[in-house]
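Exam prep: given the inputs below (a chain plus fe (ii) ion), describe the expected output before reading on.
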Amino acid sequence: MDSEAQSSSPSSPRSSSPDSPTLVPRKTVLRAALAVGAAIPAAFIGGPALARTFTSADTPVPLTPPCDDGDDPTPEQIEGPYFKPNSPERATLLEPGMQGTRLTVSGYVFGRACMPVSRALLDFWQADDNGDYDNTGFRLRGHQYTDSGGAFALTTIVPGLYPGRTRHIHVKVQAPGRPLLTTQLYFPGEPRNNTDAIFDARLLMNVRDGNGGREASFDFVLDVPQNPTPPPTTPPPTGGTWAAGTAYRAGDRVTYGGSAYVCLQAHTAQPGWEPPSVPALWRAA
Ligand SMILES: [Fe+2]
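Solution:
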């Protein structure tokens, strides 16, 4: 049994089971609406369309859509023993000759107000078709950022099984300037889901056959506040060597706010990704 299997606590699966039909989550409708630029049905924005949603004059009250539909925020999971910093930035982890069933994982990153988070970092790592992690190189490891609509898409293979665990994909997700979420994604219908102590049904992806392999979707909800009116503010520059727009490589050193930092992952710096705010990209030197 590996250390992932030993260092967890049992989770509490929600009422929805992978094998039973469930109500369409509000975010699912949001996803569809965001994808096509369509109007979002009001009944899915403010929760159930109860009488209190409207005034006696049938004037809609301001919509305040907290993510309270029962499946958020996305729960944390242990990192496990196989994470490596400095993964390459790439949306596809496929390489020539790679064995396994092709898999796409797509979805959105939302905040607590169910609004998409743009430029959120997603760092994926997983086992290969044989259940092995690449601990010397970066095979099946990569990070990417959500687009302006909060969307991400990963192309990879279905991870293989290894002793002590059910099938899973590891991921770290971080909104700009916010704490890092470390979690894992799971596949429905896996026999080991019933025996893996780390498994959490809230982290099940929707998976179907398609496009010559499997197509999965999952939406993350980060525990970050969102204000519909003002955008996040960016701290003013403090005179260090760090500068937005600079392409940094792993190992590069900068100063910011009077402290020194070492770059962990190659990236192009942008407002909101100042060193103290993004531990996935910078560590104190
Ligand atoms: Fe793992």
